[in-house]
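quick one, 218 residues, struct below
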Amino acid sequence: MKPAKVASPRLSPVRLTELREDPAPDFRRGERYDGARYSRAAADGLELNGTDFAECEFAGVSFNEAQLRGASFKDCVLSEVYAPVFAAARTTWRDVEISSPRWGSAEVYESGWQSVRIDGGKLDYLNLRGSKLNDVQISDCIINELDLGSVTANRVALRNCTIGTLDFSGAKLKDFDLRTTDFRTINGLESLAGVVIDDYQLSLLAPLLAAHLGVRVL
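---
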């Protein structure tokens, strides 16, 4: 019997053309910004709840402690964005490419991700608890702790990542591809249905599964 095929994320490439340069943006809460390129700008500490960004490029922009609750990023490219504290709960991300983010604590819980790619970067803590993830790929990224508790995820791939702690508690997963990613420990073993792993990862999981089931290996 042939093994079932794993559905890969369906990622739409982001193509931005004729962007206008905005060297000193005046970001305001609840406003809409589109068709602009922001380079080395600072949005630190700003109140930006409910703000919409569409067809924008952010290069080296700092969002440290900016309040982005309920904001949306659509058809956007973000490269080397910086935020020791990234406060972006209940945000919407659609057709977004993120490269080499430098986030410390990223609070992105209860958010919606559709066709999102993260390449490279290092994150101390990525909190996606309660989020809906569809067609998401995270590759070549170092994450100390990834919280996926209670997420609903379909066609998600973690590729060539290094992750300390993964938490799947209460998650509902389908075609969640964990192959090629290294991890130290996984919480929420009872919610691993829908995860795809390789033989080597199964050997790493074996003692965790045994402990979870109360099996003693002598």
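The two ends are 34 Å apart (CA to CA).
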